[in-house]
Amino acid sequence: MNDNNITGQVTDCLVQAFNFFNAELGTELDAPVFTLIPNRGRQSYYGWYWQGRWKDGKKSLPEINITADTLKRDVEDICETLIHEMVHYKNNVEGIADCNANQYHNKHFKKRAESFGLEVEKMKNKGYAITKLGDKAKNLVKKYKNTHLKGDKNPFHAYRIGTETRITIKQNNKRFVAIDRQLAEEAESREGDTIKNIVENALRNLLNRGSSSRRRELEEIA
Description:
alpha+beta, 3-stranded mixed sheet, two-stranded antiparallel sheet
């Protein structure tokens, strides 16, 4: 009988990585509760920070979640998400509002994220929500791997499956199409619009480009 708790192993690795980055960045954050909740609903997230989500007696504890269906990513990607959530955590502890209820990441988030070594890009309707490892953060992750991981072994080896379901886009009696749900949710999150509108706009642009090409052909013939 195998008594190994796979989710426990993954959360233990997240705690280990958190403690390492916490020390290296000098953030002095108390340990949060780590969870592995999958994506739900329309939106698709790699993770989130949620202040006061847990209670331990009278003590209130924050939650950092890494979505269970995105654990199949590389160690570097998981660590980038963790550092992203640590930015929110540090700002919250210092009373700095860096994100609203609509997940709009403001300049306070950008400033802290860059100080943690992340590169930041703007995202439609979400502010500075797109982050990736900059040189400083890359070196931190490399140091973490050299210190705690053996070779290229990925400690986040288990992930939840079942998100690659399909959804349909339809309206009244018009033609409909089934597309991958995760791709649809990521597109909606990035563009800040419904997948129906995104697809319709893409089709209009395609038709417009086709019309322009046809006009140029006719002009050349004339």
